[in-house]
């Protein structure tokens, strides 16, 4: 079998803007046909990374290959073969839905008809607004049009910068369903998001913060990197419960999580059972005798916060 | 953050309605928010949340119904409403090219605080947010998480009775997001009412009560545990998706 180069291959990539280090020592691969997530808050460097991969900006150090091509040397060839949806709405607000689509097709030297097979399932949801100005569409519709425009030239790799930011929980789920359909059709997709809960929609994710990658892996298995037992504590007044947990002499991390509070003990090698019974005794002494204490599997957000606390802070 | 039963709620909404031409964006919503409560105002994009908030902060006249905020009628006493509330949105809050100190001074001046009060508040705020060394730094060069905490504190400069937070934690890292919520609790504990919108469903669980708007109406209202029990769901995310999807079909 012929071994194919990864869809994206990044090695020791770095980018500065004046004194600000936007990216430093970034290395990861994205396999062909993979749905890969870049998970991190605003300012982590996600957009800069997309700009380097889309050849819009040049790296200061390291290398990046996209579809086997070098982002510096082969930028022209890369541009024709990727689709990019920037974070900010970047279609022509004064052109109609259909005009935007035709425009983007013509820029890539193709036609809407040639791309119809791929965009039809998405375009059918906005087709009744074909004559409406893009600027007058709702947020969800704009997003679907932008996706059509990024796909109309049948790219091999789709790069999406925060496609679900500012979008409600229902539309976010629907958008990821859409990406799953495209991936099943063979498209390679790299999407960034600040929403940690979206990580599980990806096959693999890179966790990114302060321009560095904290970890790369299967979001369902990344919890295994957690180095100590994690407890979910529930019951009573939340503010008082938080205070009581922080008063635990060996508290390592105390974070509210939905209806629960997640707690870890500073003594990483203390067994889960011993740590739990100490925790229960401590809570009882603090007036939380009825609090529920349960050992749980860490989620992506637990891991992210633990890595954030462990990582040296960038300047 | 404990909900105290109070004779006059901080926010009182009765049949509040707003039409744009033939489209009814907000369709006769009614609810109360108690003094010192943390109230989560949820809804899908386009459900009418923004229109409702614009009426509550005195920026948009209702087409029908009534609402009072901090004891003032939003239709007839809009200016007094504006003076009694704080407002912070994710999109715009602070002037990026002004320093931290200049932003505080500017907003203090807009809210009519004396120079002395502004100075006092600048000091106490810098201390509380651990920003003392950055008072003369331009806002655009401080990290997003600090920016959001600063914007929140600036919205509270004039001791408003009610503070409206429109997606205050969008894009913020998970640790800072939680620190932000602790600021919200601390604020509510002093008796300030907090009215907050968010797309993070785990944050909905941090509210004393939440409402979920669907197609201009309030489809559900209660404590997070009440709503989860009512719909038999594990999380507010599930409740939200259930209600928002049912609305979209109808």
Total DSSP E strands of chain A: 14
Unreliable residue runs of chain A: none
The topology string of helices and strands of chain A comes to EEEHEEHEHHHEHEEEEHEEHEH
Write out the strand line-up for the largest beta sheet of chain B, numbering strands in chain order.
6-7-8-3-9-10
Poorly predicted runs of chain B are none
- The structure class of chain A reads alpha/beta
N- and C-termini, Cα separation of chain A: 46 Å
Largest interface, chains and sizes: A-B, 36 and 39 residues
Question: What structural class do the secondary elements of chain B suggest?
Answer: alpha/beta
How is this structure best described in words?
- The complex is a heterodimer of chains A (315) and B (250).
- With 315 residues, chain A is an alpha/beta fold.
- Chain A is 31% helix and 26% strand.
- Chain A is built from 9 helices and 14 strands.
- In chain A, the strands form 3 sheets. Chain A has a 6-stranded mixed beta sheet, with helices on both faces. Chain A has a 4-stranded antiparallel beta sheet with strand order 2-1-4-5, covered by helices on one side.
- In chain A, strand 4 and strand 5 (69-70) form a beta hairpin.
- In chain A, helix 3 (97-107) runs parallel beside helix 5 and helix 4 runs antiparallel to helix 5 (139-151).
- The longest helix of chain A has 16 residues, at 169-184.
- Chain B is an alpha/beta fold and 250 residues long.
- In chain B, 38% of the residues lie in helices and 25% in strands.
- Chain B has helices at 49-56, 78-84, 100-110, 115-128, 144-155, 174-189, 201-204, 224-231, 236-249; strands at residues 11-20, 23-33, 38-43, 64-69, 72-73, 85-89, 162-166, 193-197, 209-214, 217-222.
- In chain B, the strands form 2 sheets. A 6-stranded mixed beta sheet of chain B has the order 6-7-8-3-9-10. In chain B, strands 2-1-4-5 form a 4-stranded antiparallel beta sheet, covered by helices on one side.
- In chain B, helix 6 (174-189) links the parallel strand 7 (162-166) and strand 8.
- Chain B starts with 10 loop residues before the first strand and ends with a helix.
- The mean pLDDT of chain B is 91.
């Amino acid at each position: 079998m012929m071994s194919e180069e990864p869809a994206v291959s990044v090695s020791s990539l770095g980018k500065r803007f004046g004194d600000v280090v936007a990216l430093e020592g970034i290395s990861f691969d994205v396999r062909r046909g993979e749905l890969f997530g870049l998970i991190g808050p605003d300012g982590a460097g996600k957009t800069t990374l997309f700009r380097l991969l889309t050849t819009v900006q040049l790296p200061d150090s390291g290398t990046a290959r996209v579809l086997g091509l070098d982002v510096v040397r082969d930028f022209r060839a890369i541009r024709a073969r990727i689709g990019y949806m920037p974070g900010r709405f970047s279609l022509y607000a004064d052109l109609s839905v259909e005009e935007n689509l035709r425009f983007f097709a013509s820029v890539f030297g193709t036609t809407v008809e040639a791309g119809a097979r791929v965009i039809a399932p998405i375009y059918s949801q906005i087709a009744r607004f074909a004559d409406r100005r893009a600027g007058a569409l709702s947020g969800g519709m704009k997003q679907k049009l932008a996706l059509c425009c990024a796909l109309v030239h049948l790219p091999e790799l789709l790069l999406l910068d925060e496609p679900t930011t500012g979008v409600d929980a229902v539309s976010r789920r629907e958008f990821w369903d859409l990406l799953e359909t495209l991936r099943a059709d063979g498209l390679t997709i790299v999407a960034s998001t600040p929403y940690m809960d979206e990580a599980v929609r990806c096959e693999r994710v890179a966790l990114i913060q302060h321009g560095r990658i904290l970890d790369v892996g299967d979001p369902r298995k990344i919890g295994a990197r957690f180095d100590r037992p994690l407890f979910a504590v529930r019951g009573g007044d939340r503010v008082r419960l938080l205070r009581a947990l922080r008063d635990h002499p060996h508290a390592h991390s105390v974070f509210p999580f939905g209806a629960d509070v997640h707690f870890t003990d500073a003594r990483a090698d203390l067994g889960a059972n011993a740590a739990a019974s100490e925790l229960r005794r401590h809570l009882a002494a603090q007036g939380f005798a009825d609090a529920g204490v349960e050992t749980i599997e860490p989620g992506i957000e637990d891991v992210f916060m633990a890595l954030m606390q462990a990582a040296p802070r960038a300047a | 953050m404990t909900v105290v039963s109070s004779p006059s709620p901080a926010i009182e909404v009765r049949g509040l309605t707003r039409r744009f031409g033939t489209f009814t964006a907000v369709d006769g919503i009614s609810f109360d928010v108690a003094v010192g409560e943390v109230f989560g105002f949820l809804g899908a994009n386009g459900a009418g949340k923004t229109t409702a908030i614009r009426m509550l902060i005195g920026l948009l006249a209702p087409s029908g119904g009534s609402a009072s905020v901090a004891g003032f009628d939003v239709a007839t006493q809009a200016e007094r409403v504006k003076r009694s509330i704080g407002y912070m949105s994710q999109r715009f809050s602070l002037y990026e090219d002004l320093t931290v100190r200049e932003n505080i001074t500017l907003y203090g001046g807009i809210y009519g605080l004396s120079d002395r009060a502004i100075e006092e508040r600048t000091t106490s705020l810098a201390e509380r947010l651990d920003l003392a060394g950055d008072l003369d730094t331009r806002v655009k060069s401080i990290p997003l998480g600090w920016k959001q905490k600063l914007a929140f504190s600036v919205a509270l400069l004039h001791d408003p009775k009610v503070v409206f937070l429109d997606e205050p934690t969008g894009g913020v890292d998970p640790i800072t997001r939680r620190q932000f919520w602790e600021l919200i609790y601390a604020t509510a504990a002093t008796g300030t009412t907090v009215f907050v919108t968010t797309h993070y469903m785990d944050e909905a669980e941090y509210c004393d009560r939440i409402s979920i708007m669907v197609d201009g109406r309030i489809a559900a209202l209660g404590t997070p545990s009440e709503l989860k029990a009512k719909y038999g769901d594990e999380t507010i995310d599930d409740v939200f998706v259930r209600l928002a999807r049912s609305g979209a079909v109808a």
